[in-house]
Design brief:
Shape: elongated
Number of strands: 5
Number of helices: 2
Low-confidence stretches: none
Strand content: 25-35%
Radius of gyration: 20 Å
Strand order of the largest sheet: 1-2-3
Largest sheet: 3 strands, antiparallel
Order of helices and strands: HEEEHEE
Distance between the termini: 68 Å
Structural class: alpha+beta
Length: 97
């Protein structure tokens, strides 16, 4: 019986640890964004978006980007300015020229 209690306690601790890691990762890559206007050249809604890569919040920052432009290709097609993560090279967003 004692071994069953230890196993249950271990599983509970693992679930708590995994939950805490998931919450931390979600907060690290914050979903903060705020609409700030519309770009007259493209008609796209502009949002202020927080982005942080590897060291947060020290190396995080806000960007003014087009809402719904989710790839380098889309950004290039509308003639926007690409924002690329300096640490990992990933796509951050696409802003007006």
């Amino acid at each position: 019986m004692n071994m069953k209690i230890k196993n249950v306690a271990l599983v509970v601790l693992l679930v708590i640890a995994v939950t805490m890691i998931v919450v931390w990762l979600y907060q690290r890559h914050s979903v903060y964004q705020k609409a700030v206007g519309v770009d007259p050249a493209t008609g796209h809604t502009l949002i202020e978006k927080y982005y942080c890569s590897d060291l947060c919040p020290e190396n995080g920052g806000t960007y003014i980007v087009f809402e719904g432009v989710n790839s380098r290709e889309e950004c290039t097609n509308i003639g926007g300015t690409l924002f690329i993560d300096p640490a990992w090279g990933g796509y951050i967003g696409c802003g007006p020229k």
